[in-house]
Hints:
By secondary structure, the chain is mainly β. The protein is built from 1 helix and 11 strands, in the order αβββββββββββ. It has one helix at residues 3-26, and strands at 45-60, 63-68, 74-80, 85-86, 92-102, 107-110, 113-119, 124-129, 131-137, 145-155, 159-169.
Amino acid sequence: MTFGRIARIAVLASLVIFLSVFLASSGSRPPVEARPQLSGDGNNCIHVGGSIITNFGAVDPNTTLGPATGDLRGAVAATLLTAPQPGPNGTVLFNVQHHWVTESGDNIYFDHAVATTIPVSQTRFAIVSYPTHIVGGTGRFAGATGDLTNIGEADLQAGTALRYFGQVCFADAQ
């Protein structure tokens, strides 16, 4: 046997072994759903994160609506409580009330929130600060509290894209 032929056989054998291991490990097991991790301090808190994509005007001119992904996946709407207001240092403030329904049908209730933004154009605003506070809900979120930070942009024509992260503390152990 020549060296080239031995090398080809070795490569083919390695490929067969790799594919066998890959196929055996991929199996037909159901996928494991990712679950938020408890914070470990015994207070039933979990770290959460995901993204939100909403469209302005989906319900009325002052209300966004769209899907939420990640740990709190479901649907989100946000209603502008007032017209955008000028803020300090050239910022623009959006006073918002959130409405959130999880994939399982639980409601998450929020305090009124203020998004502090910097105008990028007449219709696009970069979010500088946008904290939200959870004040309960239904089902799993009954008695829950928590704080989320939102980053991204508000685009009044094309919609909005946000990333959220923070912590939710439940009344009962999860």
